[in-house]
Amino acid sequence: MSTPSTRKIVSDGLWTNNPGLVQLLGLCPLLAVSNTLVNGLGLGLATTLTLVASNSVVSLIRDRVTDQIRIPVFVLVIATVVTMIELAMNAWLHGLYLILGIFIPLIVTNCAIIGRAESFASRQNLRASALDGLSMGLGFTSVLVVLGGLRELTGNGTLFDGAHLMFGEMARGWTLTLGEDYPGFLLSVLPPGAFIGLGLLVAAKNLIDKRQARAAAADTQLSAAESA
Amino acid sequence: MQFATRVSPHTVGPASVNAVMRHVLVALLPGTLLYGLLFNAGVWLNILLAVVSAVAFEALILRLRGRPVGPAIGDLSAVLTAWLFALALPPLVPWWVIVTGVFFSIVIAKQLYGGLGFNPFNPAMVGYVVVLISFPRQLTAWSVPRSLESPQAPSLSQLWQTLWGQLPVDAFTHATPLGAVKTALTRNATLSEIFSGADGIGGWLGGHSWELLALTWLAGGIWLIRKGLIAWHIPAAFLGTLFSFALFFYLIDSDHFLNPLFHLFSGAAMLGAFFILTDPVTAPASPRGKLLFGAGAGVLVYVIRTWGGYPDAVAFAVLLMNLCAPAIDYFYRPPVFGERHG
Fold first, then answer.
1. CB B135 within 8 A of CB B97
2. Coil vs helix vs strand at A159
3. Does the pTM of the predicted model rise above 0.95?
4. Is A1 domain-assigned?
5. Which residues in chain A have their CB less than 8 angstroms from residue B130's CB?
6. Which chain B residues contact residue A186 at CB under 8 A?
7. Quick one: CA dihedral A28, A33, A39, A41, positive or negative?
8. Model ipTM over 0.95
9. Which of A221, B30, B126, B317: disulfide with B297, CB 3.0–4.6 Å?
10. pLDDT tens figures, A138-160
């Protein structure tokens, strides 16, 4: 299997094969933790870190692991990485750690991670695998951040609430508010809001893709007409 | 190529979507008028705003979808949805509650699923449940019944101001009979204490003032059945099941379980039975399926009203049974003409 180009790896992870919007993997943390922008960003970055680390390790050991035992080995690698990240967050981002709670250890079960290990990292060299982990992770993070931001904005009328949990005390003033008498739209903070929000994001992505395809088709028609 | 003689059916009844919706709206009219007279004209203002915004949203989304706007507006389905949604609301809500609910009814629950005929959930009830869950405080702004002769009945200009959120509504609000009973029961009061203690809860049949309204919905519903526009199965199964469950528990302990007639003639039971559960799009098609559908909703309404967190439960019951309707349709297919019932 040939190594895809850097450009293709990055565009796959961020857009064409985005884990959140196209593969629809890892929906459990995606839907559960996207109630505020900061929570989404925190979990997204933790997942990105896990993806880069697990993809790199899996790529390095790919020749030594036989096919029969590869899945348990991948799981072991991912679990080790996640445990390290969990302990690190507990030490340095304790406030965020308390809010994200069970969803940090649950990164282990995020299908996107074992999916990348199996379908990409176990067949590609270290550089490509690490890059794939990074771009898939950032693609996942961007969906979490956009969904978290939308839900926070409509649900509570704020943005960047709790930023001090991640960026320290100076970030306390970052919180934007939509106005004092915004009544709050509870539905979007509750689980149905996550499902409806993700559905709308997927629809928006499909709409953009369709528009681009139509524009590209019009372009080729135009150039064909010119050359004729 | 066009065939000179089309395939069957060769004779088509006059019942267009528009005609059906018109009849249902006519059947709703007496109850709507009475509702405003029994409580206050806020009900009518809510309906007006809901209908206007529903038609606007429907036109907007049809344009976005590139579909013809005229026929879909003309079939009055958006008007009926908005009307039912507004009837479910308390009379004193601010305008943004109505617009948000109508947006979810028309845009999310109806048009995003493909428009009239493709929506799996009753649009009016989706809108109502969305605002009920999202704005719990505003959705308790029920009015004092006029018959209680309260000195602070709101004037029309005050109603107009509450609609635009310029006036606090607390002076005009009053718990619904079901809500008052629920609150008192959780404080360990018995039903006889509750009914003798406070005004405006118990009437001669159901909830105070609400019983008259329920009777009007019943009359409208029976007219629809006689016109052949809805089948008797769903209302009969729904009301029958609600009545039997309530009777069973009432006979066990009449001090902690409301009597069956109170259940039928309070809250949204009658409106739901004839106007909401019978929506042909979201209910099963076969007679036996309809019986099961109605009975399931009856059980759910009783269970949620009695042991759940909300005083009334028709909207939740409707949505949960809508979810079951495809499965019910799968098991109870309408018999093909000539086939014998198995």
1. yes
2. strand
3. no
4. no
5. 187
6. 133-136
7. positive
8. no
9. B317
10. 999 999 999 999 999 888 888 87
